[in-house]
Structure formats: structure tokens, C-alpha cells
Amino acid sequence: MNDKVFTKPIKKHFEFDEEVAAVFDDMLKRSVPFYGESQKITKFFALKSIKEESIVYDLGSSTASLLISIAKDLAVDARLIGLDNSEAMLEQARKKAQAFGVSIELENADILEYDYKDADLFISNFTLQFIRPLVREELVKKIYDSLKSDGIFIFSEKVISHHSKLNKDLIECYYDYKKEQGYSEYEIVQKREALENVLVPYSEDENIKMAKNCGFKHCEVIFRWANFATFIAIK
User: Fold this and answer.
1) What pLDDT band is residue 173 in, cutting at 50, 70 and 90?
2) Considering the chain, what percentage of its residues have pLDDT values greater than 70?
3) Distance between CA atoms of 115 and 4, rounded to whole angstroms?
4) For the chain, how many structural domains are there in total?
5) Annotated binding residue 35
6) Suppose 230 and one of 99, 157, 169, 223 were both cysteines; which one would form an S-S bond, judging by CB atoms 3.0 to 4.6 Å apart?
7) pLDDT at residue 111 is higher than 60
8) Cα(150)–Cα(53) distance, rounded to whole angstroms?
9) Tell me, what CATH number does 213's domain have?
10) Mean pLDDT of 222-226
11) Which ranges carry the Methyltransferase domain (predicted)?
């Protein structure tokens, strides 16, 4: 289903409700540059890190596209657990998992409060940016503490630049991309307003510093397009 959510005037801040869930896959493909490529590289490193009886968590798993893709190519017996606090997203994910015939676990959960078991891998696709900055580092520390030795955390985020002109140009570049995907100027403005104070991005350096502050021995970008980046942090 095509994303038409912002073709009409907005009445509330952005929410992952039934309307968004129904078009979310299309929204991602058209709103996140090279989303498919960032998912491929995430899957590559995920499959290399998953061992027999591994536990894998996908935080903010939405419609579970990545977990389903990983499950289809998984050569060992492991638990793939998707956590999301949107029941509408989880319902879409359950339907997709059933259609593809894959075994993944999906739970309605608060990722800040969840009781994680020892895991080899955490994944977070454009989720941290929706966590309030006051508790964002607290979540990353919880992820670090729940990882086994040499475990990895792969996360993708929208990023900003602290150079004002460069940041403005990056935003313009991104909006040009969205127009190429068929979004109108009106839709772009509507979504920007809906996300105001809901999506709070960090810079590339701030994301890396946060990971290292939480104990990760190494963190770097493995994929980037303008103001979208995928990071890998190693315990």
C-alpha cells in the first residue's frame, strides 16, 4: 500500500498507529535513502555474529522485515526476538512472518523497561532517535550490559551536522531525494512538522561517543548516505 499519510493536514504528532503501520514498508523505502542497502549490510554482519542458540533482539522491529529476512537465511538454531510498543506494527509483522513461514518472536514491549537475556546481537533501525535524549544513553548502556563478550550492536540513525551550512545542505539534499520518490512539498512539510520534537537525531560523532561512554570498545559507521548512517558497536 502506498504512503499517503501526509497528503492531508496533520492533527497530531507522528505516531506508529494503524494508518502508519499499513503503509510503513512503502514509507521506509521512499523516505530512507538506500534503506535496502543499509538493511543488507546489517543482515550481513548479523548473520556473521549469530551462533547456535544465540539470542537476537531487534528493538523497534516495526513490521519485522529485517528479522524475516535474517530468519530466511539463518543456518543455525537461534531466537530472533522483535520488540515494539505499537500493536498495529506487530500485527503487520505477524501477518508477514506467517506469510513467509519463518519462526520469529514478536512482543509488545517497552524497550527501556524490558528484561533482556544475554544476547549475541542487538539491532536498532531508526529507533534510538525516537528515544528521549535524557534516557537514550541509559538504553544503550542496558544493551551493552545485556550483550555477551564480543557481542555487537548494529544501529541505523538519521544524523545531523553541527556545521550549520552543511546541515542545511544535507537537509536540502534529503528533501530533493524525497521529491524524487514522489512526495510533494506539502507532504514533506507535513511530516517534518509531525516529527518535530518526536524525532531527535544526534550527529555521527555523538552516536559514537554515546556507544563508547556505555562501554563499547569500538564503534564506527559502516554505511552512510548524507544524513542517514548505520553504525556497528562491538563489546
Assistant:
1) very high
2) 83
3) 37
4) 1
5) yes
6) 223
7) yes
8) 16
9) 3.40.50.150
10) 97
11) 56-151
- Predicted TM-score of the model (pTM): 0.88
60 known ligand binder: yes
User: 120 labelled as ligand-binding?
Assistant: no
Is 227 annotated among the ligand-binding residues? Answer: no
151 is in an annotated binding site: no
Q: Where in 51-127 does DSSP place strands (E)?
A: 55-59, 79-84, 105-108, 119-125
DSSP character at residue 86: -
Strand spans (E) along the chain: 55-59, 79-84, 105-108, 119-125, 147-160, 202-203, 218-225, 228-234
Residue count of the chain, please give it: 235
Distance CA(106)–CA(62), nearest Å, equals 10
Answer yes or no: is 62 a known binding residue: yes
C-alpha cell at 72: 530466511
Structural domain of 170: 5-234
Residue 92 to residue 170: CA distance in whole angstroms: 32
CB 157 within 8 A of CB 207: yes
Average model confidence (pLDDT) for the chain?
Answer: 88
| 3-class state of residue 200 by DSSP | coil
Q: Does the structure show a pLDDT above 70 at 162?
A: yes
Asked if residue 125 belongs to a known ligand binding site, the reply is: yes
